[in-house]
Amino acid sequence: MRPVGRPLRWGLVAVGTLVLAAGCGQGYGGQGDDGRYDGGPGEQQTGAESDLPQSSEPADLDPADLTTEIDNEYWPMEPGTQWVYRETDEEGQELRVVVTVTSETNKLANGVTARVVRDTVTQDGEVVEDTFDWYAQDSDGTIWYLGEDTAEFDDGRVTTTAGSFEAGKDGALAGVIMPAEPAVGMAYRQEYLKGEAEDNGEVLSLDEQAEVPAGHYDRALLTKDTITIEPDVLEYKLYAPGVGPVLALGISGGGGREELVEVRTVSEETTRAAGVTPLGERY
Questions:
Q1: Using CA atoms, how far apart are residues 55 and 65, in angstroms rounded to an integer?
Q2: 68 or 9: which carries more pLDDT confidence?
Q3: Backbone angles phi and psi of 270, in degrees to 5
Q4: What is the overall mean pLDDT for the chain?
Q5: How far apart are alpha carbons 151 and 136 in whole angstroms?
Q6: Which of 32, 103, 123, 174 lies at a C-alpha separation of 20 to 30 Å from 45?
Q7: Per-residue DSSP letter, 65
Q8: How confident is the model at residue 19 (pLDDT cuts 50, 70, 90)?
Q9: If you average pLDDT over residues 250-254, what whole number do you get?
Q10: Which of 107-126 are b and which e, b meaning 16 or more Cβ less than 10 Å from the residue's Cβ?
């Protein structure tokens, strides 16, 4: 699973929620005869070609070509940046999601050194899920997702670590979380571990609007996220330039609404602690 980009944790929301929750510069389209998003009025589906990985295709990453300094316009990850999200189901139950770019790095099985990003989920003040996610950016500006160390908790005890994987280990492959130069119709694998993590993304638009507690954002990038091994799952996510993920909406197969409440810079002490404090513990 992925931060903000990971599947939402609540039940279904109505499809109409998308239109109400996030305004659209051109108007939302639908599926054409070929099953692809048509981009809506005034925006044509390009079917953009790319060399980004699909499904189980190998990703020949050169560790020397990747960096932990991540400055992609749609998700800049400066150490010390912290995003706070509110995740709500249709009955009003809430989770608090805090994502922190730490000062720590981790050399992975595929030889790539990745930035460690902490994703902590709480309900009523108690940790219910905690994750170290690993990212790196190539010289073109594409952000690669290289795995995660994750755990779910109940009353302070680990209930499962399912979803953990590391690129280059046990057949797990790196995926793309944000292309360097996204274009409408561009599709890519986000993560791959056969039978465990088979997530995909597709760029639907580059000119959306999103209204969330943190503010109003223009020129947002809209993606459609699916899971090969869970074909009923469909989510839309919006990324604001210079900010990162601002809104995620589950449409089918489980979901909810996860919206940005605040983005801030935390202290050096917190930035380091977020990267070294064991999962499930306060930092």
A1: 22
A2: 68
A3: -70, -40
A4: 86
A5: 22
A6: 174
A7: G
A8: very low
A9: 83
A10: ebebebebbbbbbbbbeeee
User: Worst-scoring range by mean pLDDT, 39-53, 147-161, 261-275?
Assistant: 39-53
Helices (H) and strands (E) in the chain, counts: 2, 15
pTM strictly above 0.90? no
CB 172 within 8 A of CB 59: no
Cα 256 to Cα 89: distance, rounded to the nearest angstrom? 5
Between CA 260 and CA 253 the distance in angstroms is: 22
The residues with which 258 forms a beta bridge, in sequence order, are 87, 248
Residue 128 has pLDDT above 80, yes or no: yes
> What is the percentage of the chain residues whose pLDDT exceeds 90?
75
- Model confidence at 30, in pLDDT bands (50, 70, 90)? very low
Nearest-angstrom CA–CA distance, 48 and 79: 32
Looking at residue 276, the DSSP 8-state letter turns out to be: H
Residue 85 CB burial class (10 angstroms; 0-12, 13-18, ≥19):
buried
Residues 6 or more apart in contact with residue 178 via CB below 8 angstroms? 72, 74, 75, 142, 143, 239
> Can you read off the two tokens belonging to residue 137?
């950016």
Strands (E), the chain: 66-67, 81-88, 94-107, 113-123, 126-138, 143-154, 157-160, 165-166, 175-178, 187-193, 197-212, 215-227, 230-240, 244-252, 257-265
Cα separation, 136 vs 253, in Å, equals: 30
Query: Could you tell me the two tokens for 19?
Result: 């239109």
- Distance separating alpha carbons of residues 212 and 198, to the nearest angstrom: 29
Which of 242, 246, 250, 253 is CA-nearest to residue 224?
250
Angle at 128 between CA 122 and CA 133, to 5 degrees: 90
